[in-house]
């Protein structure tokens, strides 16, 4: 705490992971040696930099950019770039820390990193977004590379922004190697990468339900957010026969008792991805109810998929969901549930999957994009989707292996943390004190 003042999100993430691996470490004391835990919570490198750019009115704007190179024990740093006004050191350190365990869980050789800037893409012209991305990379380019650190998208960074950043990177480095994942298909992107996080979250929820003899077929599902992860979570959930009754953004929630259809999802995608609009505009177009200022957790459902942002589902929200009969919560976002919410789910016996397990499909498919780039070929949609499903099932198995208690109940938080931890810790111990 003394070393990381003013970093509540980072301390929250560290507390959650260390708390859940602690009894495992007590049984395996080699992990308490060689300063392993002290090294694990300290990022290998933190880069903070000025990003200055000129807006459409000729005014100079200054933002702060970051890259957290958290841990490279099992492979090059890998993790997204976030553009959002809330971005700060604490949030990116928490995300880089979590990413390390998530990437380990995928079984692919990727270390953990995260980056971003306190830039708000909302209300910016396409030209301003491009100039910002170029200014951001004009500093970051010297710290990243296909064998050292490979960024991707996150909140506020989609295919358009990745394209601008990858383009500027190519220009500055005079190389065309794979330095970003989530690229456009015409220059090395992978099929299924846009879908992967949302699809993977739903695959994971289905695995949890299957283990208890149920499935998503016919279940009522709420989704929060309406961005990349949320959209494809909606798509896969309806493909598996669920009825999705909500989406949201920071202005409020759409409640649609008739449920989503592929046609409605196409309209949501048009409003969010092409018109850069708000969910109330979507609600108007499909005639659904919009509740301003509300989150989706008051709506009765059996399955909840938080896909917006960190700490968006509080203890009280969890209690409301439980009272209304929720049986399964799978996180598409990173750390959307507060510690109080997680405790409430676990206490009530709700199947609860933390983001580092259930949303790992995105980075796993980024890993598959890196493999395709290295081999200079592209796999088909079916091939990538099949590998994604296999990876999500593998993560589920790891959670069951490490998270099943004496009564046979699976604690997915412990399972994900311990499985992710063991691989990174073994690699760090093998590589000595560095
Ligand atoms: P997008 O920018 O595409 O969408 C984010 C969505 O969340 C928007 O609907 C946004 O609404 C909403 N949101 C953001 N901040 C808030 C807030 N403070 N309160 C309420 N709603 C908010 O991002 P992604 O879909 O890519 O990412 C969503 C989450 O998933 C993040 O936690 C991210 O770290 C995580 N994730 C993403 C992966 C990926 O592959 N993209 C991989 C793994 C995890 P608004 O427009 O109003 O801000």
From TrEMBL:
MF-aspect GO terms: glutamate dehydrogenase (NADP+) activity; nucleotide binding
Annotated active site: 114 (proton donor)
Residues the UniProt record annotates as site (Important for catalysis): 154
Gene Ontology BP annotations: glutamate biosynthetic process
One GO cellular component, as annotated: cytosol
Binding site for NAD(+): 197, 228
SUPFAM superfamilies to which the protein is assigned, alphabetical: Aminoacid dehydrogenase-like, N-terminal domain, NAD(P)-binding Rossmann-fold domains
Binding site for substrate: 78, 99, 102, 153, 366
Alphabetized Pfam families for the sequence: ELFV_dehydrog, ELFV_dehydrog_N
Cited InterPro entries: Aminoacid_DH-like_N_sf, Glu/Leu/Phe/Val/Trp_DH, Glu/Leu/Phe/Val/Trp_DH_C, Glu/Leu/Phe/Val/Trp_DH_dimer, Glu/Leu/Phe/Val_DH_AS, Glu_DH, Glu_Leu_Phe_Val_DH, NAD(P)-bd_dom_sf
Family: Belongs to the Glu/Leu/Phe/Val dehydrogenases family.
Name this polypeptide is given: Glutamate dehydrogenase
Organism whose genome encodes this protein: Oxalicibacterium solurbis
């Amino acid at each position: 705490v003394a070393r990381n003042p003013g970093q509540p999100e980072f301390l929250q993430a560290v507390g959650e992971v260390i708390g859940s691996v602690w009894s495992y470490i007590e049984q395996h004391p080699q992990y308490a040696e060689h300063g392993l835990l002290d090294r694990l919570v300290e990022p290998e490198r933190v880069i903070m930099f000025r990003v200055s750019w000129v807006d459409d009115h000729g005014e100079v704007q200054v933002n702060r950019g970051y890259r957290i190179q958290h841990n490279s024990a099992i492979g090059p740093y890998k993790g997204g770039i976030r553009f959002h006004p809330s971005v700060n050191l604490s949030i990116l350190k928490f995300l880089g820390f979590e990413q390390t365990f998530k990437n380990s869980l995928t079984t692919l050789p990727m270390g953990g990193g995260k980056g971003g800037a306190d830039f708000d893409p909302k209300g910016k012209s396409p030209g301003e977004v491009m100039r910002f991305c170029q200014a951001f990379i004009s500093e970051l380019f010297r710290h990243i590379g296909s064998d050292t650190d490979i960024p991707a998208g996150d909140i506020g960074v989609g295919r358009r922004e990745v394209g601008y950043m990858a383009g500027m990177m190519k220009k500055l480095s005079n190389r065309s190697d794979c330095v970003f994942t989530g690229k456009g298909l015409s220059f090395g992107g992978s099929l299924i990468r846009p879908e992967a996080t949302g699809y993977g979250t739903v695959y994971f929820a289905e695995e949890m339900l299957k283990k208890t003899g149920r499935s998503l077929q016919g279940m009522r599902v709420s989704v929060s957010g309406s961005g990349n992860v949320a959209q494809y979570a909606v798509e896969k959930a309806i493909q598996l026969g669920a009825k999705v009754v909500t989406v949201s953004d920071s202005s409020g929630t759409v409640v649609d008792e008739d449920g989503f259809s592929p046609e409605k999802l196409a309209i949501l995608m048009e409003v969010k991805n092409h018109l850069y609009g708000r969910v109330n505009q979507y609600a108007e177009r499909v005639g659904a109810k919009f509740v301003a200022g509300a989150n989706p957790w008051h709506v009765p459902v059996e399955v909840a998929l938080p896909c917006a942002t960190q700490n968006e589902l509080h203890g009280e929200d969890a209690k409301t969901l439980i009272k209304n009969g929720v049986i399964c919560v799978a996180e598409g976002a990173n750390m959307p549930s507060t510690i109080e919410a997680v405790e409430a789910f676990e206490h009530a016996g709700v199947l609860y999957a933390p983001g580092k397990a259930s949303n790992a499909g995105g980075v796993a498919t980024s890993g598959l994009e890196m493999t395709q780039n290295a081999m200079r070929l592209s796999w088909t949609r079916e091939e990538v989707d099949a590998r994604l499903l296999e990876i999500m099932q593998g993560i589920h198995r790891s959670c069951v292996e490490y998270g099943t208690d004496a009564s046979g109940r699976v604690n997915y938080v412990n399972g994900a943390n311990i499985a992710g931890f063991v691989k990174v810790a073994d690699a760090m111990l093998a590589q000595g004190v560095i």
